[in-house]
Structures are given as C-alpha cells and as structure tokens.
Amino acid sequence: MFIDLLRRRRSIRNFDSRRIEPEKMDLLIEAMLRSPTSKGRRPWEFIIVTDPEIRAALAAAKPKGASFLGGAPVCIVICGNPDTSDVWIEDCAVAATMLQLAAEDVGLGSCWSQIRGRQHATGISATSALRQLLQLPDNFQIASIIGIGYPSASVLPNPEEALPVQKIHENRYNHRR
C-alpha cells in the first residue's frame, strides 16, 4: 500500500558504493517523466550525474546541506525553465517527490538538497556556480538535487506518535478534528 511506502521513507544521506541497476534507473526515470505538471507544460529537465568529479562539485554547491551528494552513487539535478511555466518550482518539487517515492519503492534511499535560492560559498547563487559545469542553458534554474543510492545503514521509520497532528485543522484554522 502507498501509505506503507510513506511510513518507511526516510532521508538517507549515507550510501554504500553499490551501483544502481539499469532497470531501477529506468523506473526512476519513468517516475519523473510521469510527474504531473500544471497544464501539462513539463517545465522540468533532469540531469543524471554518475561522474564522481561532477558529484563532488554538486556536493560543494552550497556550504550546508549538499555534502552528502558526493557519496551518492547517483545525483539527479532537477532543473526548471521559468519561460515554460510560472509554476515551474512546484512542478519540479512534484517531480522530486515522485523520484524519492519511486526510489524507496525499489529499495533505494534518497535525500533532497534545495539549490534554488541558495548561495554557493563564493557568494554567487548555487545555480550560477553549477551552470557551466552542467552546461545549463541561461534561462534554466536548478530547483534541487536528489542523491540516490543504497543506504549504508537502515534507518527506522518515524513513529506514528511523532506525527505533528496539531498541524491538522478542520474547516478553519485552529479548529481541531
């Protein structure tokens, strides 16, 4: 069941060195390409990175929250074209979610690193820092990068008791169920 998938999914930042099988990569690609988008505009593009040197550069894209990408066997850079859709950010976020859920479904771990709106250590935007490396067109932006691989250790699911049920309101804010 889908809810079981959600219950066990956790952010994984430590991966073992196993290569991801081509058939699993094909399923991840299919999941991204099936992601719903506003008006079917599909403003996203995906760059699959397996080259260790490029992964190391991705890990240095911002001072905090990207270092784990260097240890991920596969990084998927989720880019968007703002000229294609005014909701490219949302469409890229949906694709990232589909990718992470598909990864969990096939026995892989993943973690999301936001790039949009973040700064590189040099003070320029993280997207600008990666633009030349990835040969990204000038009008494209990087929304996020997802690191994917086999987890190096198992991580327990969050217990149901830890769910923030106080965030649920009925009919109006602050009306509890």
TrEMBL record:
PANTHER family: NAD(P)H NITROREDUCTASE YDGI-RELATED (PTHR43673), NITROREDUCTASE (PTHR43673:SF2). Transmembrane segments: none annotated. Belongs to the nitroreductase family. GO terms for molecular function: oxidoreductase activity. Keywords: Flavoprotein, FMN, Oxidoreductase. It comes from the Bacteria. Residues 6-61, 63-150 form the Nitroreductase domain. Its cofactor is FMN. This is NAD(P)H-dependent dehydrogenase/reductase. InterPro entries: Nitroreductase, Nitroreductase-like.
